[in-house]
Specification:
Blueprint (H helix, E strand, L loop, with lengths): L13 E6 L7 E8 L4 H7 L11 E10 L1 H12 L3 E5 L1 H8 L4
Parallel strand pairs: 2-3, 3-4
Antiparallel strand pairs: 1-2
Length: 100
């Protein structure tokens, strides 16, 4: 799916929060809609930026919706040893389905 598949007036929002507590693995918390236009920012959040190669966690409890590209990115992150910390039942169901 290309980014142009979304209308210019698209108003979906994704909030990305990077958390790092002493002695704990860094955590990325996503809130809102995980859509193709926002994936570069999500990838950037996982690109290190001073975090090195430490294990990381992903909190998706506040993600209301994810398109196919968003689900694929979650699968890729999990394949790269990112630990899924929290997930809504909606996203859990999408992640369990076979990719098409």
């Amino acid at each position: 799916m290309s980014l142009t598949a979304y209308p210019k007036e698209w108003t979906g929002v994704l909030k990305i929060t990077r958390l790092s507590l002493p002695g704990e693995a860094p955590l990325i918390k996503l809130e809102g809609e995980l859509l193709a236009p926002w994936l570069p920012e999500v990838r950037d959040a996982f690109a290190g930026r001073g975090w090195g190669r430490r294990p990381m966690g992903l909190d998706l409890a506040a993600v209301r919706y994810a398109d196919e590209a968003g689900i694929q990115l979650i699968r890729e992150l999990m394949g790269d040893s990112v630990a899924l910390i929290a997930c809504s039942s909606f996203l859990d169901e999408l992640l369990r389905r076979e990719s098409s």
